[in-house]
């Protein structure tokens, strides 16, 4: 018997989000579809919300070996979307190296549209094989704030970069101008190749030491320009490595008695945290984008650090609403 | 029957003679060897055999030029993150560890572009642009562009006039167009997205194929030059002396290390090129944070 219902247009793991601006200036979903193992939830819109919030979830909180997720997002002109997760995206063990768990994301941001993607870290379990590919096509005036981070695995179970393979690719493209081709602005590719099960030497662990989390923050567009400038300024203001303090003890005591500005106090506290959690970071401008790379000894240390930076600047919460930063608090 | 016995006795006699002659030959050879050892070096051959000395072909001439550490690329100014690594890991720094990381990282990020440019030199401009989009830090970009521009100058001013016979005219033309575009870009700095940057990797591949080097030679020379630059930087950063550096350069570990990474990246598409040692980006990016530095990267 033929089904009376229309044929489903979505395939397993496929999802689609379309965001548009309503006449009274609020961003709203005009389409949201998803199929197992992908799950998308959006809280009902509240008056005065700054962006529409979508939870990117998976059944069971993770992806089992071989799962394929493919999410397409289209943000229409002037609209704003924030995507968060509820806890680490767990990547379970694959039965063999050939069974690849994949997550693909295709995002189009139209004129003056904005996306804030601040998820929890991806947590690849021992023996997992994972590929993540995220492609963002931005109109000239669109804005993007993207965080992509990966942890060493289940530390409580003694996992320490015991994954089999992990690949994360983030591409930022400039949308084609009339008659032209889209232009690649940025291609950030991180490749972690694990060791064979029988190998004694832990080559990947040695490469990653002593980091327990490694992340990349990509910023592009007018809305996040302030945050980018703030981070670059903080990077430039880092104390020089190997510098020595040539002041006399008297002078130091005198200087310590001086009132520091709130910014300087905040910076000193952050530098202490960077030292305590062995946070290493660098920031650079790459062809109109700003790329921040960071590593920290623990996941919590990394989260604290990036959250602190975003909070001090404050523009993400102001533009996208407080909920957009819930994963880095 | 009787004729057979005569034959067999004759052949027996000949065989005996052969055995005796062989014995004499051996003895004569032994005497000659002895005499030569006493004489010192062996007598030079009358003429250079062309079959086992390949250095006569222009290809090998250019192979030696490109692998020469006196090639004026300015590589001595860059340590590819070694200086920063030392500052970040003191006192637990280890050169062999860093060398392994650096080989793996440089091969996974850059070698696919060298190979791609060698295979399709006419795509030079696109490869250069794609590599520019894939370098995540200012310091690394500066190092790659400085050496790439130097190589392009060497090509333009020195190699171009000595093209080997049979060089691909399409590739030469692509290189010429690239040079013109690069000049136009440098005079027009206002655009934040350069049309051409001149990164070392793709240019090395394109120039090597024009000069007739094989794909494997190109990959090997490219990686070996990287190792040589690192060792030279290590000597100048007073990690060890020049003899130790030569010892490492000659070692089986370095030879195997280079072969291994070439094998790994042989089939890698440029879209899949990426950082295999993430912390390397941090070390190279943080080079600017060093209080005192002797290198540019």
From TrEMBL, chain A:
The answer on whether this UniProt entry bears the keyword Metal-binding reads no
GO MF annotation, one? nickel cation binding
The superkingdom of the source organism is Eukaryota
- Answer yes or no on keyword Zinc-finger: no
Task: Specify the signal sequence span.
Answer: none
Q: Which keywords belong to this entry?
A: Chaperone
Which family does this protein fall into?
Belongs to the UreD family.
Record-given protein name: Urease accessory protein-like protein UreD
The upper taxonomy is: Eukaryota, Fungi, Dikarya, Ascomycota, Pezizomycotina
TrEMBL record, chain B:
Keyword Chloroplast in the entry? The reply is no
Whether Transcription regulation counts among this entry's keywords is no
Which GO molecular function entries does the Swiss-Prot or TrEMBL record give? Answer: nickel cation binding
The residues forming the signal peptide are: none
Which terms are listed as keywords in the entry? Chaperone, Coiled coil, Nickel insertion
Q: Provide an example Pfam family for this protein.
A: UreF
Q: Which residues form a coiled coil?
A: 11-38
The UniProt entry's sequence similarity note says: Belongs to the UreF family.
Q: What is the designated name of this protein?
A: Urease accessory protein UreF
Q: Which organism is it from?
A: Hyaloscypha bicolor E
Q: What is the lineage of its organism?
A: Eukaryota, Fungi, Dikarya, Ascomycota, Pezizomycotina
